[in-house]
Amino acid sequence: MRRTLLILPALALSATAAFAQPNSENRCGWYENPTPGNHWLTDRDRQWLIGAQGGYQARGIDRIGDSSASRQWIATHPNGSYGYGCACAQVRTDRRNSQITRIFSWRQVPLAQCRGDRRLREPRG
Q1: CA–CA gap between residue 35 and residue 33 (Å, rounded)
Q2: What is each CA distance from 96 to 8, 93, 115, in whole angstroms?
Q3: Which of 88, 74, 71, 77 is nearest to 25 (CA)?
């Protein structure tokens, strides 16, 4: 039994290290998708471009999925598809150009998380 207890923590550390992406960071903030193809995330540091209609698109942008299906989505257009919510993501960034260059994982989180952060300003609808 004692040998098993010593091995399990080592396995847990190995599993965690295996999923960590080199040069990636966790970013949480307001995710906005106001119109087709336009996406950005505004966190405590700045606004990060994720995609621009007809132009730049971060690798892994498909990981975002359909945020509008959630109750945690504020629709800004009558059809409900476009608007904003709160999200956390593991990403790689280009600070010089304020772009997210790659999305490794994405999850929508409760609006209360962003609303509770005094350093974040809620987008206007």
Answers
A1: 6
A2: 42, 9, 27
A3: 88
Helix (H) or strand (E) holding 18: helix 2-19
Helix (H, G, I), strand (E, B) or coil at 87: strand
Closest to 25 measured CA to CA, from 3, 5, 46: 46
Of the candidate CATH numbers 2.40.50, 3.30.420, 2.60.40, 3.20.20, the domain formed by 23-115 belongs to 2.40.50
**pLDDT one-digit tens code per residue, 62-85:** 999 888 878 999 999 887 789 999
DSSP, res 67: G
Neighbours of 13 (CB within 10 A): 10
DSSP string, 46-57: -EEEEE-TTS-B
| 41-54 pLDDT per residue, tens | 999 999 999 999 99
Tokens 């505004």 correspond to 42
Burial of 76 (0-12, 13-18, 19+ CB in 10 A): middle
The SS3 assignment for 40 reads: strand
